[in-house]
Amino acid sequence: MWLRKKDKIDKEKPTIDLSIQDAFPVNCDTLYFGESFTMRVRFTDNVELGSFSIEIHQNFDHHSHSTEVTECNMDPIKAPVNQYLFIQDYDIPAGLSEHVTDLTITIPSGNAHGPFDTGDYHLYISLTDAEGWSAQKGLSVKMVGR
C-alpha cells in the first residue's frame, strides 16, 4: 500500500521552547512558597500537540536530570524534612500545532507538617504530541520564602 501525503506518519517529537519573550520559569529561576507564578512556555509540533505535565520535586541530594547547559548555584546537600511535591497533567486543546502556556500555579507555603523545605528543586516539563511522541525539559530552580 502506498501512503498518500495526507497519510504521512508523524515521526517527529514535539518541542518545548523557553526562548520566547517572557518565558518562565527558566533554568536557575527562583519560585516562592506562598505565592503564584505564571508558567509561560511555547510548545510546538509538526502535526498536533497532545498534553503536558509539570513535576516539581526537591533536589537536595544534587541528582541530575537537567536538560540545560547552564549550571545553577546549589545549596549544600541536605536531607529533606518537609519537601514540596507537585505533579499535574494538562490537556492542550485539540488540533493545535503550537500552544503558549499561560498557566498560573500556586505554591503553598506549607502543609499540616509545617513550612516546606526551601532550597534546590527540579521543575520537570514533559510534552506529548497527539501521536505519542514526547519531549522533556528539566530545569533547576530555587524555592524559597519571601
Q: Biggest sheet: strands, sense, closure? A: 5 strands, mixed
* Number of separate helices: 0
Described by its quaternary structure, the protein is: single chain
Radius of gyration: 17 Å
Q: What name is given to the CATH topology?
A: Immunoglobulin-like
Order of strands in the sheet with the most strands? 2-12-11-5-6
The number of domains: 1
The residue ranges in which pLDDT falls below 50 over 5 or more consecutive positions are none
Count of extended strands: 12
**What is the end-to-end distance?**
63 Å
- What class do helices, strands and sheet pairing give? mainly beta
Order of helices and strands: EEEEEEEEEEEE
- Overall shape: it is elongated
Our estimate of the beta-strand percent is: 35-45%
User: What CATH architecture would you give?
Assistant: Sandwich
Q: What fraction, in percent, of the residue positions are helical?
A: under 10%
* CATH secondary-structure class: Mainly Beta
Average pLDDT, all residues: 93
